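Internal tracking record. Fields below are filled automatically when a chain is submitted to the structure queue. Please do not edit lines marked as system-generated. If the sequence contains nonstandard residues, flag them in the REMARKS field before resubmitting.
Queue: standard
Priority: normal
Entity type: single polypeptide chain
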Amino acid sequence: MAAKRLLEVESKFLFNPSLVTVLQSNKGSPAFRRLEALNTHTFTDTYYDHHDMLSKNGIWLRQRTTDASMMLEAKMRISGDFARSTFDEITDWKEIAAVIRQHLPGFCTRKKDFGLDQLAEFTTTRREFLADEKFAVVLDHTDFGHAVGEVELMAEDEEKAHREIDDFMARYPWFFLKGKVEGKLEAYFRVKATSIST
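SYSTEM-GENERATED OUTPUT FOLLOWS
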């Protein structure tokens, strides 16, 4: 019997940038049971679509470029919204092409960008931590001034994973702030719309 595909289960959160140094030293109250600082790196995401046909179906096609690599990825939302969601991430080119053909028949799947329109492009600096030996905590700062955090788990059971993430974040309210969270793409379009109108 084939193993189930792991899903990316995530919750976005607000955070106070002035508390990042407190997080790094694990001096918050309460402190994390265990906190390991992982990588800090920068990448550029370029998103593609055509008349929002992919995003309307919960699919985000992006190319992520770093100094060392370039990767095409389709993120398919299984459930949730911008703040609390479950994704299936596809990086196999043939599988991505099949998704494109399903939603946008007639587009050239031999091209690097499938002949789609560039929807957005921005650069993110990401700090990564592993908290309590299980939870990936990422802090993103974009080149257009937006900051947002995510807690992530790779899991087969999304409902269980969401409960675990909720319980984890509730233990450390000093860092995981409550409030309306705006994802990077959502913020990008808001900033772009504001700059066009002024």
